C-alpha cells in the first residue's frame, strides 16, 4: 500500500498523470518494464513500419554522402564533420522552403557561389537600392530581400546548411518510401529576380543625346526644367509600349556650356540590351545684346556716350543687362584733363568690368563706352522730314515703353536712318532741331517734349535747389550750368594739382598725362551690402566701385574714381508676361529717379569740395597764443599705418620719432615703441638692431611675451650660434602669451634647433609636469609640447598618404547614405593603424595634450586646430574629440561640437562626453551659435517688410518619398510665392537624404521655409544608424 501511494504521488507531478495511473492499475509491475522480449523484437523488425523507417534512414545516409562528395569536388575548403549536426543553427529555418531556389543555386554549389549570389541579389533588392521607387514596389522588394537574406543565413553557414539538407533528405526519402508527398511551403517567386539579373548582365543600351537650348537669363538666374519625352517601356501584358516620362533638369547659376545632364538607363527599353541612356546637352540661345565668354557677359555693341563726351569732366552711362537689370555707371573721366589736349582726338574707349554681374559670383559684365570728341552732328531738317522724324520716334516710344534700354536702341535705329547718331545726346539734339523745323504742329511738339523728358525727372527738384539745400552751392557757380563751366572747373582742378611743383616734376607729370592711351580699363567690385527696396514687386540696389583699383597704378595711368549701381529684382528671372509687365511699370518709375540723382546731382555736388582735414599738428582754441593747446603728432598711428601698408623703413622712422618724444618715466610706452621698431627692423633684415631693441624692451617689461618674441625672431635669423637663445626666448614668449603667432615662432625655432641631439621624451615629460603643477603652468606646458612635437615629427615620418585616405573616407561617411560607408571608414582606420608606428601615436597624444593646454589658456582657434590634427592620426580617440568639442563650444560652433561629442560617446561612453552633449542640447535652442547668428541676421532682413507684403502658409504630412507627392512639390509655381513663408509641420519624409532633397525643392519656391520635424522625420532608417550624421 505504501508503494502504491508513493507511485501515485510521483504520478501527480507528471504531465501524463492519467495515462501513467491507468497503466499502473491495469498492468501492475509489468508497466514499469520498457524492455521487449526477443519475440516482441522479432515481430517489430518484421513489421512494415519498421522496415519502411529503416529504408528511409538508409536513403538519407545515401543522399548525404552523395551530396558531400559532389560538394567536396566543387569546394576544396568543404570539410564535413559529424559535429555539424549537433551545432547550434544560425537561423531557425523552415525545411519546407527551398532556399536554393531563392538564391538561384544548385544543392552542390560551393560557399563562394552562395556569397556571390547574395551580393548580386542585394544590389537589386536592398532597401538602399530601391529609393525613389513607388511605396508599393519598395515594400515588395523589401519582402524579397528578407527571403534572400534568410536564405543566405541558412546556406552561408556549413553546420546549418548540412542540418537543413538532412531534414530535406528525410522528407524526400519519406515521400519515396511511403508515397505520401510532403507539402512544400510557398517561397518568393524569383522570376523577377532572374529577369533583373539577366537585365544587368545584358550589354548597355544606346546613348541618346538630346540637344537643348535655354535663354541666357536661365544660366544667369538658374532654372529648373521639366522635360517630357515619350519613351518605350515594358508592360507585363502588352510588351513594349510608349509612355511619357518627365526628366527634371536643374541648371545652376553660372553652369558651363555645353552643360551635360545624364539619366542613366532611363531611355527606351530594348529587347536585347539594357535601357538607353539619355544625355541632355544644354547650351544658351543667342542674345540680342549680350554674349557669353566663360563666366563673363560681354555687351556686343559699344555704349555710345555722344559727341563731346570726351571733354566732359564726368562719365555717365546706362547699360541694360539680362532681362530687366539696369546698370548705372558714373565717375571721373579718365581721359579728361584739358579741352585743348583732346581737341585733336576723335574718340577714346573706356573698358568697364563689373564683378558679380556675370554668370557667376566671380564673373564680370564687360562693356566698352565710346567717348567722342567734337559736338553732336545734327542734320538740317525740312518741315516734312522733321515731321516724319518726330512721328517715327513717337511711334517707337508709344510701342516700347518709357525708359527701357530697348527703347533707346530702337530710337537709335530710327535716328541712324535719318543720319543722326545713336547715342542719347545726338538723339536729343536732333529732336530739338526737328522741333524748330516743325513749328505749328502742337500735338507733335507735345510728343517731342515727352521724348526730351525721357530719362529725366522733370517734376523733381532742380540742381541748384539740391545744392543749396545741402550747403554746397556757391555764387560763382549758380549760373554756370553748361558743359563749358564743367570743363573750366576740371582745368582749374588740374592746374591746382600741378601748381607749386618744381619744373622737373611738372614736366614729368605732364609727360605722364600726354602718354595716356586711348583705352582705359575700369574694374568695379561690390561695395557694401545691397539695399532692399520694399516695392511691388520688391527690388534691390547693388553698389560697385573701383576703390581697390585706385590703390594700384596700372602702367602709366592711374585710375580715377568710378561707381555703379545695379537695379534688379528676383522677378527678373520670371519671363511670364504679367510679371514682366509689373517690373516694367516699376522700372519706368525708378529709372528716371536714379538717373537724376546719379547723373545730375552727384556730379554737381562733387564740384564743391569740403575743407581739407590736415593730418598734422594744429592749434586748437581761440584767443591768445598762450591759451592755445598743441596736439602731438600721432607717430605711433603713422608707424602702424606704414607697417600695415608695407613701408617698413618709414614705420621704423616714425617709431624712432615717437620714441624720442616719450617721457623717460613712461616705461610701458617705451617698451611698446622699442618692440614695434624691432618688428619693422626685422622686416628690412636688420636683425642685429632688431635684437638690440627687443632686449631693451624685455628689460623694461620682462613679463611681456611680445618682447621675448622679438628676441626669438632676431636671434634665430642672426646666426646659428644663437639658436639656443632663440629657442629660450620663444619658449618664454609662449609661456607668457600662448598665442598662435608665438606657438608658430617656437615651432620654427625648434625645427632649426632640432639638428642638435635632444630627447623628445624629456620635453614631453616637462610639459606634463607643467600641466599638472600646482598652480598649473599651461603656457610653459604648451611650449614643451610644441618642442616635443617638432622633435617627434621630424624623426618619424607621418603616413601622409594614409591620413589623406582616411580623411576622404570620413568625408564620404559624413555625406553618403551608402550602408557600406561605415565599413569603408573602419577599414581606413585599420590601414592607418597598420601604417603608423608608436611614435605617430605619441604625436597624436602631444597634439591632444597641447589642445587641452590651449583650451585652459583660452586660445580656442589653436586648440581646435591641434585637436583636429590629433583626430586625423587617431580618429577613434574619444578624448581628442572631447577637446575639439570644448574649443568649438567656446568658438560658438555648437552644432559641430555636438557632432564631435556624439562620436566620442559612440567610441567610448564617458561622463565628460555625455555632459558635453547635454550642454550642446541646452545651448542649440538658444540660437547663440555662429550659424544661428547668421540665420538671425538673414531673417532680420524681413523686419522692415510691410505686413501685407507676405503670406504665411502651413502644411504637414507631405511624404516626399511618394512619387505623386514629389511631383506635386515640383509643380508648385517658382515665382508666385517668392514673398511668402512656408511652415512644414512634420512627416516630410522617411530618410534624411529625402528630407534634405524635399527642403531644397521647397526652398526654391518660397522666401522662407521653416521645418518642424515629425515622428517619421526623426525615426532612423536602418541604413542611417551609426553613420556620421547619427553617431
Helical content (DSSP H or I, runs of 4+): 40-55%
What general form does the structure show?
flat
Give the termini separation: 73 Å
The gyration radius over C-alpha positions equals: 44 Å
Number of helices: 40
What class do helices, strands and sheet pairing give? alpha/beta
Oligomeric status: single chain
Largest beta sheet, briefly?
11 strands, mixed
| Uncertain segments | 4-17, 338-343, 456-460, 472-494, 496-502, 608-629, 1026-1030
Mean pLDDT: 76
Strand content: 5-15%
The total of beta strands comes to 21
Explain this structure to me?
The chain has 1031 residues and is an alpha/beta fold. 51% of the residues lie in helices and 13% in strands. The chain has 40 helices and 21 strands. The strands form five sheets. Strands 6, 7, 8, 9, 10, 11, 12, 13, 14, 15 and 16 form an eleven-stranded mixed sheet that branches. It has a three-stranded mixed sheet with strand order 1-5-4. Strands 19-20-21 form a three-stranded parallel sheet, covered by helices on one side. Helix 26 runs antiparallel to helix 27, helix 27 (740-753) packs across helix 29 and helix 33 runs antiparallel to helix 34. The protein is flat, with a radius of gyration of 44 Å. Residues 4-17, 338-343, 456-460, 472-494, 496-502, 608-629 and 1026-1030 have low confidence and may be disordered.
Amino acid at each position: 500500500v505504501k508503494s502504491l501511494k508513493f507511485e501515485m504521488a510521483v504520478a501527480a507531478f507528471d504531465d501524463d498523470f492519467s495515462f501513467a495511473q491507468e497503466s499502473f492499475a491495469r498492468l501492475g509491475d509489468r508497466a514499469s518494464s520498457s524492455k521487449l522480449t526477443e519475440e516482441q523484437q522479432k515481430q517489430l523488425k518484421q513489421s512494415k513500419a519498421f522496415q519502411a523507417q529503416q529504408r528511409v534512414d538508409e536513403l538519407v545516409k545515401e543522399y548525404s554522402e552523395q551530396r558531400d562528395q559532389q560538394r567536396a569536388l566543387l569546394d576544396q575548403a568543404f570539410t564535413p564533420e559529424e559535429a555539424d549536426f549537433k551545432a547550434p543553427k544560425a537561423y531557425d529555418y523552415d525545411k519546407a522552403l527551398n532556399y536554393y531556389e531563392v538564391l538561384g543555386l544548385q544543392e552542390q554549389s560551393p560557399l563562394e557561389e552562395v556569397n556571390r549570389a547574395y551580393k548580386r541579389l542585394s544590389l537589386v533588392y536592398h532597401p538602399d537600392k530601391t529609393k525613389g521607387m513607388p511605396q508599393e514596389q519598395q515594400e515588395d522588394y523589401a519582402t524579397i530581400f528578407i527571403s534572400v537574406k534568410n536564405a543566405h543565413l541558412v546556406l552561408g553557414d556549413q553546420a546549418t546548411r548540412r542540418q537543413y539538407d538532412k531534414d530535406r533528405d528525410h522528407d524526400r526519402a519519406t515521400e519515396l518510401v511511403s508515397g505520401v508527398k510532403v507539402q512544400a511551403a510557398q517561397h518568393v517567386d524569383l522570376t523577377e529576380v532572374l529577369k533583373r539579373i539577366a537585365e544587368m548582365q545584358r550589354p548597355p543600351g544606346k546613348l541618346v543625346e538630346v540637344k537643348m537650348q535655354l535663354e541666357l537669363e536661365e544660366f544667369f538666374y538658374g532654372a529648373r526644367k521639366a522635360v517630357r519625352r515619350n519613351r518605350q517601356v515594358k508592360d507585363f501584358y502588352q510588351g513594349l509600349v510608349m509612355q511619357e516620362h518627365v526628366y527634371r533638369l536643374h541648371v545652376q547659376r553660372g553652369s558651363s556650356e555645353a552643360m551635360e545632364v545624364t539619366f542613366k538607363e532611363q531611355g527606351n527599353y530594348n529587347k536585347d540590351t539594357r535601357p538607353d541612356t539619355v544625355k541632355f546637352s544644354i547650351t544658351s540661345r543667342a542674345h540680342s545684346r549680350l554674349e557669353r565668354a566663360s563666366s563673363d557677359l560681354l555687351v556686343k555693341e559699344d555704349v555710345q556716350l555722344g559727341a563731346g563726351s570726351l571733354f566732359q569732366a564726368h562719365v555717365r552711362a546706362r547699360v541694360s543687362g539680362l532681362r530687366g537689370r539696369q546698370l548705372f555707371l558714373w565717375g571721373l573721366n579718365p581721359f579728361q584733363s584739358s579741352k585743348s589736349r583732346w581737341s585733336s582726338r576723335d574718340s577714346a574707349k573706356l573698358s568697364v568690368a563689373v564683378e558679380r554681374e556675370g554668370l557667376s559670383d566671380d564673373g564680370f559684365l564687360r562693356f566698352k563706352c565710346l567717348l567722342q570728341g567734337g559736338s553732336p552732328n545734327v542734320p538740317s531738317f525740312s518741315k516734312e522730314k522733321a515731321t516724319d522724324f518726330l512721328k517715327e520716334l513717337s511711334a517707337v516710344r508709344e510701342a516700347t515703353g518709357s525708359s527701357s534700354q530697348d527703347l533707346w536702341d530702337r530710337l537709335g535705329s530710327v535716328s541712324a536712318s535719318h543720319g543722326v547718331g545713336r547715342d542719347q545726346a545726338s538723339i536729343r539734339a536732333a529732336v530739338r532741331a526737328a522741333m524748330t523745323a516743325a513749328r505749328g504742329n502742337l500735338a507733335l511738339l507735345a510728343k517731342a517734349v515727352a521724348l526730351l523728358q525721357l530719362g529725366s525727372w522733370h517734376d523733381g527738384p532742380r540742381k541748384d535747389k539740391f545744392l543749396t539745400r545741402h550747403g554746397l552751392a556757391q555764387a560763382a557757380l549758380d549760373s554756370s550750368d553748361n558743359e563749358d563751366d564743367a570743363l573750366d572747373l576740371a582745368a582749374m582742378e588740374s592746374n591746382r594739382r600741378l601748381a607749386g611743383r618744381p619744373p622737373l616734376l611738372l614736366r614729368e607729370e605732364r609727360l605722364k598725362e600726354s602718354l595716356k592711351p586711348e583705352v582705359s580699363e575700369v574694374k568695379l567690385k561690390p561695395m557694401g551690402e545691397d539695399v532692399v527696396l520694399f516695392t511691388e514687386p520688391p527690388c534691390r540696389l547693388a553698389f560697385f566701385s573701383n576703390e581697390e583699383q585706385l590703390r594700384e597704378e596700372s602702367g602709366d595711368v592711374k585710375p580715377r574714381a568710378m561707381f555703379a549701381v545695379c537695379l534688379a529684382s528676383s522677378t527678373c528671372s520670371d519671363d511670364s508676361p504679367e510679371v514682366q509687365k509689373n517690373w516694367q511699370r516699376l522700372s519706368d518709375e525708378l529709372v528716371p529717379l536714379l538717373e537724376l540723382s546719379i547723373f545730375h546731382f552727384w556730379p554737381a555736388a562733387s564740384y564743391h569740395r569740403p575743407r581739407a582735414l590736415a593730418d598734422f599738428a594744429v592749434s586748437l582754441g581761440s584767443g591768445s597764443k598762450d591759451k592755445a593747446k598743441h596736439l602731438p603728432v600721432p607717430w605711433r598711428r603713422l608707424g602702424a599705418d606704414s607697417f600695415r601698408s608695407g613701408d617698413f623703413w618709414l614705420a621704423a622712422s616714425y617709431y624712432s620719432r615717437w620714441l624720442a618724444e616719450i617721457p623717460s618715466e613712461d616705461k610701458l610706452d617705451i617698451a611698446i615703441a622699442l618692440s614695434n621698431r624691432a618688428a619693422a627692423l626685422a622686416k628690412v633684415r636688420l636683425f642685429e638692431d632688431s635684437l638690440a631693441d627687443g632686449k631693451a624692451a624685455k628689460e623694461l617689461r620682462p613679463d611681456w611675451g611680445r618682447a621675448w618674441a622679438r628676441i626669438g625672431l632676431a636671434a634665430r635669423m642672426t646666426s646659428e650660434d644663437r639658436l639656443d637663445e632663440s629657442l629660450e626666448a620663444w619658449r618664454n614668449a609662449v609661456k607668457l602669451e600662448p598665442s598662435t603667432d608665438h606657438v608658430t615662432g617656437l615651432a620654427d625655432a625648434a625645427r632649426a634647433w632640432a639638428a642638435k641631439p635632444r630627447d623628445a621624451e624629456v620635453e614631453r615629460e616637462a610639459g606634463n609636469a607643467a600641466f599638472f603643477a600646482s598652480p598649473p603652468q599651461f603656457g610653459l606646458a604648451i611650449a614643451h609640447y610644441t618642442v616635443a612635437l617638432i622633435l617627434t615629427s621630424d624623426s618619424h615620418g607621418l603616413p601622409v598618404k594614409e591620413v589623406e585616405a582616411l580623411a576622404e573616407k570620413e568625408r564620404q561617411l559624413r555625406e553618403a547614405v551608402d550602408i557600406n560607408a561605415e565599413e569603408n571608414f573602419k577599414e581606413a582606420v585599420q590601414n592607418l593603424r597598420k601604417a603608423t608606428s608608436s611614435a605617430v601615436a605619441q604625436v597624436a597624444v602631444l597634439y591632444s595634450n597641447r589642445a587641452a593646454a590651449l583650451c585652459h589658456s583660452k586660445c580656442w582657434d589653436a586648440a581646435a586646430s591641434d585637436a583636429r590634427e590629433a583626430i586625423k592620426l587617431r580618429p577613434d580617440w574619444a578624448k581628442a574629440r572631447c577637446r575639439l568639442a570644448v574649443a568649438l563650444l567656446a568658438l560658438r560652433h555648437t552644432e559641430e561640437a555636438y557632432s564631435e561629442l556624439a562620436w566620442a560617446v559612440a567610441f567610448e561612453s564617458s561622463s565628460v562626453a555625455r555632459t558635453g552633449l547635454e550642454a550642446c542640447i541646452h545651448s542649440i535652442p538658444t540660437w547663440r551659435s555662429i550659424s544661428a547668428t547668421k540665420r538671425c541676421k538673414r531673417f532680420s532682413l524681413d523686419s522692415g517688410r510691410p505686413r501685407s507684403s507676405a503670406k504665411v502658409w502651413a502644411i504637414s504630412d507631405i511624404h516626399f518619398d511618394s512619387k505623386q507627392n514629389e511631383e506635386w512639390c515640383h509643380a508648385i509655381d517658382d515665382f508666385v510665392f517668392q514673398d511668402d513663408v512656408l511652415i512644414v509641420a512634420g512627416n516630410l519624409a522617411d530618410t534624411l537624404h529625402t528630407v534634405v532633397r524635399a527642403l531644397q525643392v521647397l526652398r526654391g519656391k518660397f522666401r522662407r521655409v521653416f521645418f518642424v520635424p515629425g515622428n517619421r522625420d526623426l525615426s532612423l532608417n536602418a541604413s542611417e544608424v551609426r553613420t556620421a550624421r547619427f553617431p
